[in-house]
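User: Structure please.
Assistant: Input sequence and predicted structure:
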Amino acid sequence: MTIWGDIALDGARRSVTVEREYPATVAELWSALTEPERLAHWIGRYTADGDDYRIELGRADGEAIAAGRVLSCEPERSIRVSWRFSGGGDEEAETELAVELEPVGSDRARLTLSHRRVQAVTAAVYGAGWEDVLTHLAREVGGDPSPVNELGYVGEAADPAAFDAALDEYRREEAGLVAARMIRDDGRSGVHLERMLDAPITAVWDALTRPERIGRWLWPVVEWPDDPARIRPLRQGDTFRLGDTNLPESVPPTEVLALEVGRLFSFTWGAGGEAVTIRLEQHGDGTLFVLDQDPIPDVFGAGRLRSAPDFAAGWHALVDGLVLLLNGLTVPKPEALWEAAYEVYAEAAH
């Protein structure tokens, strides 16, 4: 599959751009984009109060809502709005959505959708999601509208297989934007990863050192030092144990080698006691997260040799989970984050 758009870095966030041509004039396409009764056929039930708007996406139970404000509008040319999604327990930070139209010949029009300031990891979901929504729009202007009930578009994917394929490809695209550097050293593999996180250092530090947070992005906490209740944060010299579902009975203890509150966290990793060191640095409202895994021996597991691409993809996917935790978000098929990253690193290793 070839995706219609791309993902780009936008500081600690991302921007998503998707483009599509339609067999309709600009005027026809503008009508479908701006008239509430037509919006209900392809994206959701639209209501407005002045420049403020609300769209009930998908089902009629109000579970998924996009709301914001119209920031600018040039009829039959462009519209720009603020966008804040909430649904399924998630509430995203405010982003910005812009749509531009231009004629392509006498009876066709090109639509370019740009979604800016999207939170990392969710950008791939938006890329695939907007492709699906624009397919519903194609049905609306092409005379074969998507199924509707008495309240409007009911929210089924226009093509579930196409959505899944696009999501996988956008995930690979996003992983490539923030790929770690693999280090090879005579049968040993290390990782250097840098990522801008959309969260203050205090929040990131809590996620690194508090047991109730560590277990939600790294691995589940099995043993915690001197604290049966597993409440206190880690200290230098502590030893704790995490549960790796791949090695349920042979997880070595992890020792805190160095700890500078809000700045540095170093700990042993793996049977050989090699170090993983995480450094944090404040950048505006965000945090630069730098991880170095010392080279560890390549290991045979799951029927093959596991080396640099495996280790880099592992840390990459774990940091994706940290990003989601820090922003209180979820994504479909989170287990596929590792697979997308692994494809990027496996290709780079050849």
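The helical segments are 26-34, 36-42, 122-142, 160-177, 201-209, 211-214, 308-327, 336-348.
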